[in-house]
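Entry 14. Structure prediction run on the chain below.
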Amino acid sequence: MKVKAEHINPYEGDTRGKTEQVRDMFDSISGAYDFMNRAMTMGVDRLWRRTAVNTVRRPAPRRVVDLATGTGDLAIALARRIPGAEITGYDLSEGMLEIGRRKVEKAGLSERISLYQADCLALPAADNSADAVTVAYGVRNFEHLLEGYREMHRILRPGGMLCVLELSTPRGRITAPLYRFYTRRIIPLAGRLISHDNRAYSYLPESIAAVPQGADMCALMAEAGFSDCRFRPMTFGACTMYTAVK
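Output returned:
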């Protein structure tokens, strides 16, 4: 399946690959990232993460790998809700990880959460080593999405769960135009003022519009080897949770 999101890059005219551009973009906005997440979603991103955590915790995984872990919000939520689980987070951006490590230490979870810089398309993790793999708002940033899913499949043990949260596009007659105005006008303006990165928050709605959604995303997961692929739209379709099993 051809994935349009792979051709949407953060910086127009930059000849580097998407991976390098995404890394530098998140390094650039790392200080503003948590504030912008809360502001952009009006705090609803916490509800979306809670839904994902409640889904992942049901089979009581002991080893969880959180990809595109960013500043560690999902990793921390998983550790708090799954007693005894060890969480390993990977992200391209060392700037985001530095903030995440401080948050993990402040939460008193340093013994159970480890955060490392790595490319999610080539993870330093053994085959069949994770009971669950999670990704929150990150897969649209992958340079090669199918390769990313194949890497997730590789590190999951047989029977292990994949849970992906990704921003998506509402389809309703009223919600769709309101969403387009908000994401294409308000968010880029706020992002420029707060993060001082003129491009990062224009890239956001472009990448959301281009990433596979719903059944198309499930088809990509199935192509990577996953089974029982399901999707659940949330908040009028502004976010979608995808689950699958190895």
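The helical segments are 18-41, 44-57, 73-81, 94-106, 145-155, 175-195, 200-210, 215-223.
Filed with the rest of this week's runs.
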